[in-house]
Structures are given as structure tokens and as C-alpha cells.
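To: structure subgroup
Subject: Chain for Friday's discussion

All,

I'm putting the inputs and outputs inline so they're searchable in the archive.
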Amino acid sequence: MIDATRSIAEVLRADQLVCGVDDLSGHTRERMAPLLEESGLAAGRDFHLAFSPERVDPGRTDFTLRNTPKVLVV
């Protein structure tokens, strides 16, 4: 997650939305935001940061990406 976030920070531009998908919502605010802000842009001012909880269990076939709604918390 850290390497991926740093890669995003290298190409992040104003007014873009970055959405973290994880089991823990605190990772987006506490870990991703500071790494993204190394780009010189500020979360909530220059770019948008959202969190989407992990909703799909890879072992289940009855709840998939097609029938499980995506939730974004901004």
C-alpha cells in the first residue's frame, strides 16, 4: 500500500480523486494522506481523498463486484 500510494503521489494532479480500498478506514486518512501530500498538494483542498471499505470476500461466489454496491466515504 505504501509503495502504491507513493507511485500515485508522483503523478497526482489538482482536483483528482484518490480512493483507498481497505479493511481499515484509518489507513486512508492516517497513512495515505500524508504520503499523497508529499506531492505538494493538500488533501481536501487540492485533491479529494475517499475511502471505500472492502466489501467483497474473494471466497464467496454469491456476493461479487457485480451485485455488491460500492460505498465511498469522502
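Points worth raising on Friday:
The radius of gyration is 14 Å.
The chain has a mean pLDDT of 86.

D.
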